[in-house]
Design brief:
The protein is of the alpha+beta class. It folds into two domains: 2-94, Alpha-Beta Plaits; 104-203. It is 23% helix and 31% strand. The protein has helices at 16-29, 73-81, 118-129, 178-184, 189-192, and strands at residues 2-7, 46-47, 57-65, 88-94, 104-111, 134-138, 145-149, 154-160, 163-169, 196-203. Strands 1, 2, 3, 4, 5, 8, 9 and 10 form an eight-stranded mixed beta sheet that branches. A two-stranded antiparallel ribbon has the order 6-7. The chain is elongated, with a radius of gyration of 19 Å.
């Protein structure tokens, strides 16, 4: 079962694991038969195929849930919607094929940097014109830094009526982080993530 949902408001500041916990409790309250892993410490089979950075709003999140029995998607959507907290809105639900796996291909983001300036336009032109754009990525566990070329992941970058919009390629070799693109344009992630929204994800 694939559930598409939107997330905004204060709840967008919860972590990846807390988001899964919200859905786990919602499934339990809705009395929907979610499948669990086997072993001494079973867990519900729920996953978010494209993790969302903390603070980022989204119009295109997807949760994958394995069910113990077939239930019509519209019934799952109706029962689960009544259990969701404010800030999370379920948009659609569909059954997945037996061997169907959702893998993201591209993700599009939009953020408002405030009043557009000539410096922003020049910075965008510079990023688009360069062949490589190296950033230092810090490993969250070890604290080690390693250089990453994020330019190959940047498909599109342009101004729009809401501010800046860009599309990133997502693949087996990873992707650029939205904060890295914002940093390339001269913004600090802490100052822009709360104004950024994931607006579209394409899947294969």
């Amino acid at each position: 079962m694939a559930l598409t949902f939107r997330i905004d408001g204060d709840v967008r500041f919860i972590s990846h694991h807390d988001t899964l916990r919200v859905f786990r409790r919602a499934f339990a309250r809705a009395e929907l038969p979610i499948r669990f892993t086997e072993g001494f410490n079973p867990h519900p089979k729920l996953s978010l195929p494209l993790p969302r950075p903390v603070g980022l709003a989204s119009e295109a999140e997807v949760l994958v849930a394995e069910m113990e029995e077939a239930i019509p998607p519209n019934e799952v959507l109706e029962r689960l919607s009544r259990q969701m907290p404010g800030g999370i809105e379920l948009a659609a639900c569909r059954a997945l094929g037996a061997k169907e796996r959702l893998s993201p291909v591209t993700a599009t983001y939009r953020f408002s940097p405030g009043e557009p300036t000539s410096e922003l336009g020049e910075r965008m032109t510079q990023v688009l014109a360069t062949e490589t754009w190296i950033v230092d990525r810090v490993d969250r566990q070890s604290g080690r830094r390693r250089p990453i070329d994020v330019k190959p992941f940047l498909i599109r970058l342009e101004l729009c009526s809401e501010g800046v919009e860009f599309t990133l390629r997502v693949g087996d070799d990873g992707s650029a982080r939205p904060a890295e693109i914002a940093a390339a344009l001269g913004f600090h992630a802490d100052a822009v993530y709360h104004r950024m929204t994931r607006v579209e994800v394409r899947w294969r």
